């Protein structure tokens, strides 16, 4: 128990002291002492007023100090709301799996079925994820009826909410993933901000679910370091080239990689288009695996039943903590593969190779990230890379006759570059690129190529801004706002907008500028027409 007196007790003591003083003064007045005899009635009146006023002030102070306070919560620490709508139970299973991944990364999560969702719960949430299945001919699950009746007919203000949608469906039906898109549309119309574009899953497609899992990792914690829910069927590729593009930069090292499938390998006849994604299977550095083997007194050249050596298996696996006395078979049974990493493809098919642009990331402990560390520092040029291509139709290009505005920062130029290469091959020259980085001297990735493209007439406008170089505009969103008139003009002429780069900072800031310039309805019309597409991470 604390011996410190409460504020209420202290306030009451002050009130009692004030009343004692007033009583003493009134007693002196009654006995005719001091100079108060000259105006006893007036003095008594003012004394009473002062006493009452003082007591009232003390009461107000006491109330203010002891009033109930609404606890303030850091939005980043508020639980993530995870809502599922399921007809067969699959969406509910994915919701629990998603919640487990987020909790395993140290994030708080509250899971609700959609009929439990109400306006108060949405108002109390900063971030929300929706996993929604579609049944029949574009219908929502049966248990979503209360939500449809109560909320989707209402007009809540959701400007505080950031959300993501996983839409489950079957592409053989006409209204593919309809309820998921209906949810996305409703959230946008009421001011909510999309964390990323709706992820469509066709018949439990493993690649789409891996992409969803990758997006969960962007919400914080270390969810991206957890094993993939479904294994990736990689093909064997060769790393042809690796070049460090920004030596001397104040930012992390950025590397340009060029890869080709190995001849005769399964899936070597590959195809992709601008906007598609490369899924890479990372490996531990050999020294890390060797140190683990020595620590646990195991031989890396031990041959396993599948023909691999133990070291080769471990290089692609999460390195477990081995208890004393554990045998090799038990160890092998518990091994989990390293999670894949996703990168925007920076080249078009006619370029002859898949090109990637990535920044080496560091973990909280200062060690390189699983994927970027492997690709930037460890993987030998000329050596094999586990890689798989994944279609990403939400970021595919638009009709070449339509003007195109491309906006990105940092390594986000990768996905935009692929589109520019495709557009140039198609003879589409009405392209406007806005790109942001730190310093022009070190961080203008593919700068010479872009300037030459502008000189050839394939880039109608090139706006590059660099935050560390001074100037009127520090960030790409600042330049976009300064060009509000041009933005409106291009959109009125039918332009589409592609955004590629940082989920934190750039993408929401650009989204806010687009809404400010075009209005909420104008932005929504672009989204619904497929003229506003994003690849953010």
From TrEMBL:
What are the FAD-binding FR-type domain coordinates in residue numbering? 232-398
Domain annotation Flavodoxin-like: ranges: 80-217
Q: Does the keyword Membrane apply?
A: yes
* UniProt-recorded Gene Ontology molecular function terms: flavin adenine dinucleotide binding; FMN binding; NADPH-hemoprotein reductase activity
This entry carries the following GO cellular component terms, namely: cytosol
Look at the named UniProt entry and state the broad enzyme category this protein falls under. Answer: oxidoreductase
Q: Which UniProt keywords apply?
A: Electron transport, Flavoprotein, FMN, Membrane, Transmembrane, Transmembrane helix, Transport
* Segment forming the signal sequence: none
**EC number, UniProt record:** 1.6.2.4
Q: Where are its TM segments located?
A: 12-31, 43-64
- Tell me if Flavoprotein is a UniProt keyword of this record: yes
| CDD domains linked | SiR_like1
What name appears for this protein in its UniProt entry?
NADPH--hemoprotein reductase
């Amino acid at each position: 128990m604390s011996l410190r007196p409460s504020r209420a007790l202290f306030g009451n003591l002050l009130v009692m002291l004030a009343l004692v003083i007033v009583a003493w003064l009134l007693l002196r007045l009654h006995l005719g002492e001091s100079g108060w005899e000259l105006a006893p009635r007036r003095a008594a009146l003012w004394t009473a007023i002062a006493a009452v006023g003082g007591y009232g002030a003390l009461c107000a102070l006491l109330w203010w100090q002891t009033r109930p306070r609404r606890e303030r919560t850091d939005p980043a620490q508020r639980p993530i709301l995870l809502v599922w709508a399921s007809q067969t139970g699959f969406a509910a299973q994915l919701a629990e799996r998603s919640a487990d991944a987020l909790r395993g990364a140290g994030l708080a999560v509250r899971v609700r079925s959609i009929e439990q969702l109400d306006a108060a719960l949405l108002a109390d949430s900063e971030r929300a994820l929706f996993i929604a299945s579609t049944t029949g001919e574009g219908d929502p699950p049966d248990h979503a009826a209360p939500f449809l009746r109560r909320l989707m007919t209402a007009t809540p203000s959701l400007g505080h909410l950031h959300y993501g949608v996983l839409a489950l469906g079957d592409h053989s039906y006409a209204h593919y993933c309809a309820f998921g898109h209906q949810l996305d549309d409703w959230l946008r119309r009421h001011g909510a901000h999309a964390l990323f574009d709706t992820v469509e899953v066709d018949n439990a497609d493993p690649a789409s679910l891996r992409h969803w899992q990758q997006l969960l990792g962007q919400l914080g914690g270390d969810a991206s370091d957890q094993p993939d829910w479904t294994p990736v069927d990689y093909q064997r590729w060769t790393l042809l080239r690796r070049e460090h593009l920004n030596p001397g930069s104040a930012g992390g090292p950025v590397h340009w990689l060029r890869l080709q499938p190995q001849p005769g390998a399964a899936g070597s006849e590959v195809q992709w288009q601008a906007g598609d994604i490369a899924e890479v299977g990372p490996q531990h550095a050999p020294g890390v695996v060797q140190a683990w083997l020595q620590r646990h007194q195991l031989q890396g050249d031990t041959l396993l039943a599948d023909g691999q050596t133990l070291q080769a298996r471990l290089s692609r696996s999460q390195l477990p903590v081995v208890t004393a006395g554990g045998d090799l078979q038990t160890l092998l049974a518990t091994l989990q593969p390293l999670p894949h990493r996703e990168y925007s493809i920076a080249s078009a098919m006619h370029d002859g190779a898949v090109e990637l642009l990535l920044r080496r990331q560091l973990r909280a402990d200062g060690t390189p990230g699983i994927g970027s560390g492997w690709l930037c520092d460890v993987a030998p040029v000329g050596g094999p890379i586990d890689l798989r291509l994944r279609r990403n139709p939400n970021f595919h290009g638009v009709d070449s006759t339509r003007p195109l505005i491309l906006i990105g920062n940092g390594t986000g130029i990768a996905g935009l570059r692929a589109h520019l290469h495709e557009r140039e091959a198609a003879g589409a020259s009405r392209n406007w690129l806005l790109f942001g980085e730190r310093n022009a001297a070190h961080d203008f990735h593919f700068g010479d190529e872009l300037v030459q493209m502008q000189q050839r007439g394939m880039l109608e406008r090139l706006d590059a801004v660099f935050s560390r170089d001074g100037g009127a505009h520090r960030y790409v969103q600042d330049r976009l706002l300064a060009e509000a008139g041009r933005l409106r003009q291009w959109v009125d002429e039918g332009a589409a907008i592609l955004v590629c780069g940082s989920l934190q900072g750039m993408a929401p800031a650009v989204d806010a500028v687009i809404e400010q310039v075009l209005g909420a309805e104008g932005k929504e019309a672009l989204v619904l027409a497929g003229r506003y597409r994003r690849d953010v991470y």
